[in-house]
Amino acid sequence: MNAPIDTSAYVITPPGIPTLPIVDSDKLFPIHRIYCVGRNYAEHAIEMGHDPDKEPPFFFQKNPDNVITNGTFPYPDKSSDVHFEMEMLVALGKGGVNIPLDKAMEHVWGYGVGLDMTRRDLQGEAKKLGRPWEVGKSFEASAPCSALVPASKIGHPDHGKVWLNVNGKPRQVGDLNQMIWKVPEMISYLSGLFELQPGDIIMSGTPAGVGAIVRGDLMEGGVDGVGTLNFKVV
């Protein structure tokens, strides 16, 4: 969802501000950047062919305007193997650099749920060639998301089922307590690599069970205590 802006000061019409809705509010959360944590659940790391005990945390980015909230996911071109990855979103209300671990949660505004949609075939080709993942991860509409809920309402969840059904059949089931790198660690580590800003979103990683979807599928998922989403593949 893009919020409109005043276009009079620009030589071309700029895009609107990417935003996420907020539960029980008519206000919007402006998105600055989206950081995604790679292989943050041990079983998912293993199913992708990696040893979770030997890897430090790593991150990739999606573009803010990759976010969609309208309930339909358009199957992308140039791929025949598009996968779902169900995740909890962490929305930052404060930024900073080198944020101490014991201060990290003070920077969290709220939480939501999202899908890290992945053109797995294109990502696999990039990996083989040692190239960046953008073509597999940062394509249009690759971040279907729910509305956000403030931490002031739900606290800071550190456990709760992470789940995804496709056409009513369970495909992913995990728990937030299975994350290798917890939310404070993600924030503290990231802030040593980037200057985090208000409006940054962290996609916190996905449990095992990722797989392909086809046009006509209905993806329903959520994180218990945080939120749910429903997206049809079109």
Automatic annotation (TrEMBL):
Domain of life: Bacteria
Annotated keywords: Hydrolase, Metal-binding
One Pfam family this sequence matches: FAA_hydrolase
UniProt keyword Acyltransferase present: no
Single GO MF descriptor: acetylpyruvate hydrolase activity
Domain Fumarylacetoacetase-like C-terminal: 34-234
Transmembrane segments: none
Name of this chain's protein: Fumarylacetoacetate hydrolase family protein
